[in-house]
Amino acid sequence: MEQVDTVIVGAGVIGLAIARELAPSRSVVLLEQESHFGEHLSSRNSEVIHAGLYYPPDSLKARLCLRGNALLYRYCQEKNIPYRQCGKLVVANEGQQDTLEQLHQNALNSGATGLHPCSQQWLGRQEPWLHASEALLSEHSGIVDSHALMQCLAAQAQANHALLCYRHRVRRIDCHQAHFLLLVDSDEGPFELQCRHLINAAGLGAAPLLQHCHGFPADGIPEQRLARGNYFSLAGRSPTQRLVYPLPESDGLGIHLTVDLAGNARFGPDVEWIAQRDYQVNASRQPQFENAIRRYWPSFAPQRLSPAYAGIRPKLFVNGAPWRDFLIQDEKEHGIKGMINLLGIESPGLTAALAIAEDIASRG
């Protein structure tokens, strides 16, 4: 039977970042059920580098987003990963100014910097297409090539002898006093793998995996629901090179405009609750997109919009109530030494990835 120090389940940006962080000091095996890294959450998002505006002070999201923002910009510069610190405008219209100010204060209380209130006059000069009474400019927001980022993380992990195993699905986990026994399906057939440390970074599959973890307390498994986020692309030239966001909604950040590194604009995501994984864009949502876009771009021509892609976010519920923070469980939460679960890692997970890896390494 194969034995290693640490097994990481899931080769999205979080699992890859953790493998890169841990590989220099221990033996690491990374198990991924797909044939390539980052097939789900990590590649089906807006590729935005967030700046910590939205999350409650002292939350994991606030702390890890702000730390991750600084680490990610530095890493991209060091490794020549394509990115652009283009800035973001969060816009408010009549009757929303108090809500925008509350967002600004929350961001300051969380430790966010580089924030500038923008008047209607300033917006008229800088973004004449934009309809807004005022806005908040976040200069530390940006975009990144998520594929290039994951490629670099994977290469660094492998350079430090981490073993990345694709098309390997964990079917069962047995928790023992000093080790874990994993039953793994692969193209060569099933096999057993033993490890001292187990890190569950399986993204959409992280909470469901715990249902197959024997010895894990059932009351430590949160309910996970799925929220599809549809994206629509804009034909022709983008009206801006900045990111433009409406004020956030209860389960998302609103249908926002992002511009990729090639200068192309897209809108999304929305929040569409679904029963099972389905990445097909729901084209019937287009009228809702058109209405949302017109609130900040009244002259928008709807014929320029076309379905692009969709992502799915894991939304956690604990005791029937929404859990809006990251949920990182270690021995203090579940009583099992050597096991860490990363649950509900949606936005700002991409931004926070390097900080999450740093945090996991500090837990031993």
* Most strands sheet: 9 strands, mixed
Low-confidence stretches: none
Indicate the overall shape: elongated
Helical segment count: 9
Helix content, binned percent: 25-40%
The CATH superfamily of the domain at 2-45 and 147-223 and 320-362 is known as FAD/NAD(P)-binding domain
In oligomeric terms, what are we looking at? single chain
Specify Rg, calculated over alpha carbons: 21 Å
How many angstroms does the end-to-end distance come to?
25 Å
Strand content: 25-35%
Provide the residue-averaged pLDDT: 97
Class computed from helices, strands and strand pairing: alpha/beta
What CATH calls the topology of the domain at 2-45 and 147-223 and 320-362 is FAD/NAD(P)-binding domain
Number of strands: 22
- CATH level-two architecture of the domain at 2-45 and 147-223 and 320-362: 3-Layer(bba) Sandwich
Give the class-level CATH name of the domain at 2-45 and 147-223 and 320-362: Alpha Beta
Topology:
Layout: E1 2-9, H1 13-22, E2 28-32, E3 48-49, H2 60-79, E4 83-84, E5 88-92, H3 97-110, E6 115-118, H4 120-126, E7 134-138, E8 142-144, H5 146-159, E9 163-166, E10 169-175, E11 180-185, E12 191-200, H6 206-209, E13 213-214, E14 223-234, E15 243-245, E16 256-259, E17 265-268, E18 272-274, H7 286-294, E19 305-318, E20 321-323, E21 327-329, H8 331-334, E22 339-343, H9 349-362
Parallel strand pairs: 1-2, 1-12, 2-9, 5-15, 10-13, 12-22
Antiparallel strand pairs: 3-8, 4-8, 5-7, 6-7, 10-11, 11-12, 14-17, 14-18, 14-19, 16-17, 19-20, 21-22
Helix pairs in contact: 1-5, 1-9, 2-9
